[in-house]
């Protein structure tokens, strides 16, 4: 067993505090959370270095949640009624597994884990895959969506990266039904 991969007691405690603060934060969904973090951390009576490290990590976590919330809001009114995506993110091991690393790839590793996290809606996972350009995951998630949900991705108010990623899939599907390049071009013109 590799002891280096085990989180320290301090990391475990920090993750627990972050999870509790993020649960409160998620209920309130503030757009500015600096004062929120400072206020709640000051209530814990922690040593200054620990409080500073925890504040940095909580801000990073809240920033990422805010980003996920923004991505989620771009489509939730059309595609994800009464979903629990943000609550599921806070519960997921994938979200917390990479916080002990200082790697610049932390966010990408978290997103990759969330894309595979089955308790999140397939729509949200598809949007994450598109936004973060995990192109190998897009076709797999697309196939999990019912046709009526896929049709929502043709809306002009979808984020540009989502439109680009899903158009590639649509073009690949159209190509299967065409005899040659000219037939494909004509089919595209009919559908635009």
Description:
- The chain is 68% helix and 0% strand.
- With 192 residues, it is mainly α.
- Helix 1 crosses helix 3 (48-79), helix 1 (9-28) packs antiparallel against helix 4 (85-91) and helix 7 (122-131) packs across helix 10 (160-176).
- The longest helix has 32 residues, at 48-79.
- The mean pLDDT is 73.
Protein traits:
192 residues; mainly alpha; elongated
Compact description:
The chain is mostly helical and 192 residues long. Helices cover 68% and strands 0% of the residues.
Which spans have pLDDT < 50 for at least 5 consecutive residues? none
Q: Separation of termini? A: 57 Å
Decide which structural class fits the backbone. Answer: mainly alpha
Shape: elongated
Q: Could you spell the SSE succession in H and E letters?
A: HHHHHHHHHHH
Helix percent reads 55-70%
Largest sheet: none
Count all strands and give the number: 0
Spell out the blueprint of helices and strands.
Elements: H1 9-28, H2 34-42, H3 48-79, H4 85-91, H5 93-96, H6 106-115, H7 122-131, H8 137-143, H9 147-150, H10 160-176, H11 181-191
Helix pairs in contact: 1-3, 1-4, 2-3, 3-7, 6-7, 7-8, 7-10
């Amino acid at each position: 067993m590799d002891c280096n991969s085990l989180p320290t007691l301090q990391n475990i405690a920090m993750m627990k505090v972050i999870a509790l603060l993020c649960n409160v934060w998620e209920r309130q969904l503030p757009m500015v959370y600096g004062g929120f973090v400072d206020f709640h951390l000051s209530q814990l009576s922690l040593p200054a270095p620990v409080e500073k490290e925890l504040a940095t990590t909580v801000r990073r976590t809240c920033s990422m949640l805010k980003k996920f919330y923004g991505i989620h809001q771009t489509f939730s009114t059309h595609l994800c009624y009464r979903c629990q995506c943000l609550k599921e993110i806070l519960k997921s091991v994938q979200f917390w597994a990479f916080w002990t690393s200082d790697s610049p790839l932390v966010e990408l590793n978290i997103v990759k884990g969330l894309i595979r996290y089955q308790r999140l809606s397939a729509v949200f996972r598809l949007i994450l895959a598109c936004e973060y350009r995990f192109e190998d995951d897009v076709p797999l998630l697309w196939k999990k969506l019912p046709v009526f949900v896929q049709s929502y991705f043709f809306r002009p108010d979808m984020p540009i990266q989502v439109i680009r990623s899903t158009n590639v899939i649509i073009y690949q599907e159209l190509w299967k039904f065409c005899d040659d390049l000219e037939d494909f071009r004509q089919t595209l013109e009919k559908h635009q």
